[in-house]
């Protein structure tokens, strides 16, 4: 098997950016290969856009380097100007030029002979399925169509890197999924390295080959979406993707006792406070049988009794909130399809052991 030894299309090393003494991007490193989509995912204000702006060359880092195809593009001394970085940009407010036709918008950044430019414009408008609007103007297009023109415009000069900052957030929900999928297919075909900023976990899960989870200026976890989702580094990383339930406990003999039985806490010293974190979809529900629940099992532990406080049907699933007997706290469970038990109903809850995370409190 051939080993790919080519340098990554985009590499950033130890980027730091400070504003007025506040570190907004704090030692961020990552690589993106050609044809790959990496999502910078994190809450508002965590430094995602600033990272993108440094790569684009419109913000200057305080330290760290940026490489494209192994070549230095920018450090604190040397700097390739933004327009020579071969980077395509697509932001939320992707304003098209209102006075230019669709074709001229797409051709805007293109150089070369007229026929070649026309060929590339037609190729891209065919890809985004807007060839029939080639002579139209932006105001004649819907929001989703304008978005696709903006994509075609950004891709026209065959950028080596595409930077996208919340590019779909201006679109209404019904359009968004379709446009995300189409965009992804086109980006893959064009073989650019894509760095996409979003604060929406679903968007990152849908688009990314790799997710870089960012918090307070730092990348706290990086990996394939499946790994980031199923092997989160801490409670906040679990909570970023879904609702969570948390049990408090203390470790004794590498075990944490809870009303749901004991959890393994290998290597955690005795007396350490821990939190057992799990998602609502990993709670199992059982009916009450004359005051009893299911027998304990190795995979699901011990059942605990709860009383339905509230239940709602959400479309694909139902969310049931239980008031738990053991300490009166609320625990959330989701189940597929419709299950809306009345408040006051007694049920027994177990947790899937293999889907729980034990973190130091
Ligand atoms: N030019 C600037 N001068 C001072 N502070 C800035 C500047 N640009 C950004 N910041 C601050 O840096 C922090 C990170 O901003 P940034 O836009 O990178 O975050 P973000 O993760 O992209 O958030 P959002 O999704 O809300 O855009 C914010 O607190 C912001 O107020």
Automatic annotation (TrEMBL):
Keywords: ATP-binding, Cell membrane, Hydrolase, Ion transport, Iron, Iron transport, Membrane, Nucleotide-binding, Transport. Residues 10-241 form the ABC transporter domain. One of its GO terms (biological process) is quaternary ammonium group transport. Gene3D superfamilies: P-loop containing nucleotide triphosphate hydrolases (3.40.50.300). Its EC number is 3.6.3.30. It is an enzyme of class 3 (hydrolase). GO terms for molecular function: ABC-type ferric iron transporter activity; ATP binding; ATP hydrolysis activity. GO terms for cellular component: ATP-binding cassette (ABC) transporter complex. This is Fe(3+) ions import ATP-binding protein FbpC 2. It comes from Ruegeria arenilitoris. The lineage of its organism: Bacteria, Pseudomonadati, Pseudomonadota, Alphaproteobacteria, Rhodobacterales. The gene is fbpC2_1.
